[in-house]
Amino acid sequence: VKLHILGCHAATPRSTTNPTAQVLESRNQLFLIDCGEGTQVQLRRHKLKFSRIDHIFISHLHGDHFFGLPGLLATFRLMGREKDLHLFGPEGIKEAITIILRLGEAETGYTIHFHELKGSDSECILDSEKISVHTIPLDHRIYTNGFLFRQKPKLLNLKIEVIEQYGIDTAQFLNIKRGSDARLKDGKVIPNSELTLPPPKQKSYAFCSDTAYNDRILPFIKEVDTLYHDATFLESESHLTAITKHATAREAATLAREAKVERLILGHFSSRYKDLHAFLEESRPIFSQTFLAEDGAVFEW
Ligand SMILES: [Zn+2]
Ligand SMILES: [Zn+2]
Near ion ligand 2, which residues have CB within 5 Å? Predict the structure, then answer.
């Protein structure tokens, strides 16, 4: 799994920073998460092919997470896209996108499947052979969802030496990898457990922005490999979290520790801070495996 941070700063685009957008790369699929202004430029900088994006997830309709989307959809059209696109986002996103594209006479030649979200409980919104995606209800000024990506278990690994000893023919391999027992020519059955090893651990990623600190999300993020969490403020501005419904670096670290995640990525930094190192200084004493989501950063696990 690779996570490309295309942008991670709060509010407005600036000469050196971009608002929120990320691409999660898992088993040859690209998932675009949020689409702030500048996302197209960042995709090109990162050499991430537009044509490989078939799923886009929008957490909420604040501009710093969403204003890059109409432009990207129009570019897909200019590039001659024909493949379907799945778009997940809050209720209203279909109306917003449709009006913008219609007024510009830029209706798409490809089909956009709008999956509008309005539930207040977590729900499974994508379930394929390779991956599942669940919403994580967040606590923000407007309706907002985080997203939990979890790879599906891979097939079992064959113990080739044992398979060869028994002389099991290749026609049975796929079924054995799926968990079936093997049958020898004389009718003898060899149990699957003798022939296979467990598959590698399936990887997971939880995206949680924008949100105030809220431990209701703990069950959803429990023991994920990587948690990205809102860290708009340092402790010196913690009085602002209640009104703005954002979190501090320390709050994000506390959640990461409670949820026993493997690593924490902080993002959505307020533009008032020039030196982001202070975010690590405040969070690492609570949770040591904390990293900064600087624009252009790539995380791999
Ligand atoms: Zn935001
Ligand atoms: Zn917001």
Answer: 62, 210
